[in-house]
Amino acid sequence: MPKVVGVRFRRAGKIYYFDPGELELKQGQDLIVETSRGLEFGEVAQENKEVSADEIVPPLRLVRRVAADVDYKQLDENRLKEKEALRVCHDKIEKHKLDMKLVDVEFTFDHNKIIFYFTSDGRVDFRELVKDLAAVFRTRIELRQIGVRDEAKMLGGLGPCGRGLCCSTFLGDFGPVSIRMAKDQNLSLNPTKISGICGRLMCCLRYEAEHYECARAGFPSMGEVVTTPHGEGKIISQNIMKKTVYVELLNESKHEEFPVDEIVRTPPCKGR
Hints:
Elements lengths: L2 E6 L6 E4 L11 E6 L2 E13 L12 E4 L2 H28 L4 E7 L5 E7 L7 H11 L2 E6 L2 H8 L10 H4 L9 H6 L6 H4 L14 H8 L8 E4 L2 E9 L4 E6 L4 E6 L4 E2 L7
Parallel strand pairs: 7-8
Antiparallel strand pairs: 1-2, 1-4, 3-4, 3-5, 6-7, 9-10, 9-13, 10-11, 11-12
Helix pairs in contact: 1-2
């Protein structure tokens, strides 16, 4: 099986596999690697390991070297140039009166390309903007439209919980999140309470969704008629974490909470 090393280019970014060659690399080391965009500065996220060929997206590119002092100097220079490029691009966007929001700028390590990331509600004709930027920086220019979740991941910030955003601190990829996950966890369906700063459903709704789905399998469904220690009743609410249900007792017209293991489910009539 081929030997690879996992490299990440941004904090909480996606991990890509590279060929380490003869290098024995440790997690946290900085590297210079070959990519489709040219040379890039990255960090070891997964140490040397063997993987199956199915896990590799060919071609498997090479790790050039462990980062040296000259590479860190180059990286610092790039960061300064990115700040200047951000200012210039803002001015050019205002000049052309384009309906777009500039989010971030990235220089490839070898200055082969400058990538400008932006958001917009629709399509943007930025051909003249690209010409102006190319005339200023005299290198290849790419404008890449991203979504609001990617914008939050790039910029970072604090979530409603008071912690750093999951997407910008440890989530490598965005997983699908649905309103059903919030319903299954008995959360408020008020959009302001279950949405992140990006305006989309919070990524953390996924974290316990599988547990709730498995735990709910042993619960009677909403509206089901069951037998309780106090007589028959109808399920009106569930508490998955406490493993209890609220039952509307049919003969007393009141609600009571019972542990789910004290509930006897009423079998359906054979004639139905």
